[in-house]
Amino acid sequence: RLPAPLRRYQRATHPPPPKTAIAALVLLALGTIFLLCGLAPGPHPTKSHRMTLFLVGGLTFLPGSYATISLFAAFRRWPGYSYDQVPSWDE
Length: 91
Description:
mainly alpha; 56% helix; elongated
């Protein structure tokens, strides 16, 4: 058993909801890919194509990063975080 000041660094006793964790990581990965494709001047012929990829990337990256950080913080037992803060697809 850890002393009181170190307990917040202890891992949670139960794992995060699996479907929610997978969905959060997929949203984060797709959002990162789309954001990078939207920023890079690669094979996209027009600026409107890149802007579309950038917007889709932002729309997927923001909820993915929020859910991933919340799940990680709840797993690590950071004060103020719990699995209840993230919308769940496991019910």
